[in-house]
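User: Please work through this fold.
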Amino acid sequence: MTSMLQADIDPQFLERPKKTLNKGKRRIRGALSVIDIRAWAHLFRLVNYYNNTHVTPRREIRFGPDPAISPTASFANGFYIHIGARAHIGAHCYLWAGRSAQSGITIGDDLLLGPNVVITSTSYRYNAGAPVTKQPMRESPVKIGNDVWVGANAVILPGAQIGNSAIIAAGAVIRGDVPAGAIMAGVPAREIGHRQSD
């Protein structure tokens, strides 16, 4: 296997010297980057994005006591998100509620979300005849019970109802009802086991 890999590498690529900048050129490049207006404009966009997807909506969300929320979590329509006590929300999670109380996200106590989990109560319609972005939104509430663990990269779709003590495996896609204590996995998710009580 090693000989095959060596044969695939262009010998000219291996012989090219690495480009290096002397100290003076590195200092000039560093100074120019500090006064580059494009860098400041990009920083402004990043701060604005963070404010609109984390800081402002987080003030609107009703949290129970002792939440642990990653600073990279994003929220939409925070007025319609209610999260119980002792929630742990991992890095890069997205909670997108609908634009009304009828399409909110309600989560019980002791939630554990792994990284990159998406919980949304909104979706686009996709009937033919118009671009998807021009069609009305379809909204349906999401309800998650107490003591639920959702693994990394799972997606919970509009209308999902997850019972107490359920476990959602990493990468699962949930729509519809999940019984209490169920262990769900797959795309679309199906029950693969049941959580044992102590």
In short: The chain has a mean pLDDT of 87. The two ends are 50 Å apart (CA to CA). Residues 61-193 form a domain with the UDP N-Acetylglucosamine Acyltransferase; domain 1 fold (CATH 2.160.10.10). The helical segments are 2-8, 11-15, 23-35, 37-60.
